[in-house]
Amino acid sequence: MKNILFIDTGFEYGGGTKSFLYLLEGLQKYSDQYNFYVFFEHNYFISNNKTVNQYLKSLKVNVIKNNFYCKKISKIQKEIYRLISKSLLQKKEIQHKIKFAEQVLQSNHFDIIHLNNHFGTNLEYIISANNLKIPVIQHLRKNSLLSHYQLKLLKGLSFRTISVSKATYQFYNRQLSIDNNVIYNPFPLKLKELETNINVNNNVVKIFMPANYLENKGHKLVFQALDNISREDIKVYLAGSGSFDIQTNSLKDKLIKDNKLVELGFIDDIDKYYQISDYVLSFSQNEGLPRTVVEGLMRGCHIITSNYEVSFEIKKLLLNQNVYTILPRESHSLEMCLMDLKPVNHKEVDLNIKQVFSLENYVSAVYNYYKQML
Fold first, then answer.
1. Is residue 30 within 8 Å of 367, Cβ to Cβ?
2. Does residue 345 have a pLDDT over 80?
3. For 46-86, how does the pLDDT look when each residue is reduced to its tens digit (9 = 90+)?
4. Burial, 48: exposed, middle or buried (Cβ in 10 Å; 0-12, 13-18, 19+)?
5. What is the pLDDT of residues 308-329, one digit of tens each?
6. Could you read off the pLDDT of 136-164 as tens digits, one per residue?
7. For residue 108, how many other CB atoms are within 10 A of its CB?
8. Among 276, 299, 306, 366, which has the minimal tally of Cβ within 10 Å of its Cβ?
9. DSSP string covering 3-40, please?
10. Cα torsion for 21, 26, 28, 34, to the nearest 10°?
């Protein structure tokens, strides 16, 4: 039996976590060949009443709790190193993190380390895996520019990669040479949802925007566009968590008062809002593979996105590309689009999208990758 350790270093639940958990669920059928171990540095909530470690107990995996020494360097040490030089601080920080990572990797014998998210969040684990001569996979889910220091370290290391889209592969391959290995995230649906075409209420154009309150998600641009239109038959449902700057928050409150915006917060019943919505809106600066966009397509919603690279890749996969609108990322273009929007009279899942983003394809592709490595 081979041992595979999955590691997640994120701070909150998002699309990357969801896809990671789908993979763990799908790999359960290979539990006669592999022992699966899972380590989440942060035991965050994945619903209003359940943490990720609580959820993992329902799977055939070995959960490693974070009982290791803290990986953060103290504030006093950080300031002393910073005063001497920035390069010394970087060196000391990574050394501190490597000590932590090696404790995790030495907690058992592992044949493969499978890292979630991106290089910038996992560098210490890649270095530690190399030090311990353990094959390591970096599952690239987010497009994040690497610093000169990070690039310098990575170019001397051995690792394999999985990219969640062609756009993500190209993004990182422009910075350093990586495997051309694209495995799309899965977006599984219940059978009855796939077979049922949904007719929605045509009195109001309903737009769903599920996105945590981060600056790069484009909320401010969306709020500005929404505030400038005179239509009273458009409503945006905003789902996510976090906080806005004072100006953006003030505009959000105005839109709620004007009955143009509904703030849902963190929601467990996200499918309900895909079902009732005409459109899904994603106005990010960049995305690896936007889960909300593909989830919307898998539920028959029409899509409006800004012009980040992977959006063009997704649109090309559609049999009916008329359901997908790509706009320049500025408020005026979105404003003009909102003025012309019509209700969606008939919602239907695109058959090619259903096939490309299937759970079966995802799990079998990762399983075959493991077999190549071992």
1. yes
2. yes
3. 887 899 999 999 898 999 988 876 667 788 888 888 888 88
4. exposed
5. 999 999 999 999 999 999 999 9
6. 999 999 899 999 999 999 999 999 999 99
7. 12
8. 276
9. EEEEEE--SS--HHHHHHHHHHHHGGGGTTTEEEEEEE
10. -90
Strand order of the β-sheet with 279-282 is: 261-265, 234-239, 205-210, 279-282, 302-306, 324-327
Q: How far is CA 124 from CA 75, 100, 114, 153, in A?
A: 20, 8, 13, 10
The C-alpha atoms of residue 33 and residue 232 are separated, in whole angstroms, by 58
- The amino acid occupying position 350 is D
Q: Torsion over CA of 17, 19, 20 and 24, rounded to 10 degrees?
A: 130
Rounded-to-integer distance, Cα 125 and Cα 110, Å: 13
Structural domains in the chain?
2-186+358-373 (3.40.50.2000), 191-356 (3.40.50.2000)
DSSP code at position 216: G
Nearest to 305 by CA among 318, 292, 316: 292
Strands of 255-357 (E only): list them.
261-265, 279-282, 302-306, 324-327
